[in-house]
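Appendix B. One record, verbatim.
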Amino acid sequence: MATYKKRGAIKSVSSSKENEIAIESTTAEVFDALDSSASKTEEWVVKYQNVILTIISVIAVSVLSYLGYNNFVTEPKQREAVSELNQAQYYFELAVNSVDSDSLYSRALRGGEGKYGFLDIIENYKGTSAAKLATYSAGMAYLNLKEYEKCKELMEEQIPILKSILGEDNIETKQIEQNLNKCIMKMG
């Protein structure tokens, strides 16, 4: 025969009430502990809210200033420098591929046709990648113009920058060091 439980049967009330009381007292203790720690945290936040808001504001202003400077000052300056560098690089390439190239190297250094030369780019766009390339190219132009002292000065300026960016063993760094050695050897 099958047995079944009747709905609405009387259950043992005493044992479950004792368990509920024990659970309620433990839960009440936990909630009391949470309430006391939350109230301490609330008191601390209220006490230091001006300092907290000031720190958050300073961080927000710093981040926004940095992003604004990059977007509205550095990037346009970089684009302008690259645009100016194109004409100087054009003269430099013509000079490299030409037989009588002294005047072209001079134009690459000093500019022409209303555009900046390498020296102007170095002076007006410091810190940009175009200025770093212009520094190296100006050094090479001085090497080909046989102005070894100026070549040495620009190459020595460029080597630490490239080593920090590219590393000690990079091919471009080694090439600039070789060109610097050429300048030094030809100086005497």
